[in-house]
Amino acid sequence: MKLMTAAQMKETDSRAVSVFCIPSTVLMENAGRAMAAEMEPLYGKKVVVFSGGGNNGGDGLVAARLAVSKNAISVSVYMPAGVSLTHDTAEMKKRFMEYGGTVEEICEIDDCVIKECSNADIIVDALFGTGLSR
Prior knowledge:
The structure is a single chain. With 134 residues, the protein is an alpha/beta fold. The chain has 5 helices and 4 strands; from the N terminus they run ααβαβαβαβ. Helix content is 48%, strand content 16%. Helix 3 (55-69) links the parallel strand 1 and strand 2 (74-80). Helix 2 crosses helix 3 (55-69) and helix 3 runs parallel beside helix 4 (87-98). The radius of gyration is 15 Å and the shape is globular.
């Protein structure tokens, strides 16, 4: 397995879009599909996704949509309140919601979210990706 630094991954994504003309939303769909494939043995279960506003958050939203399509018992998606979304992540949020999913914006991890997580079979961390700079 080859591991890449954040800079190398960013360059790889950029080349895929600019040189090979692969739409960035296709890259996001592929990443989310790979996440969903790893979760598939546990479908029929409860899934909680924490999604950020960057492209990693979009990957999580794709995985959430696919979990819904594969009949997960329930899929809960949480995003930080007021977070700005990349164009592609906004598109994936829209697709997830058109598929019947809901996204709850939260300011903090409260007792309800903790209870939701304690009853989950799968928890997806899609908050930060390679673009995190703080």
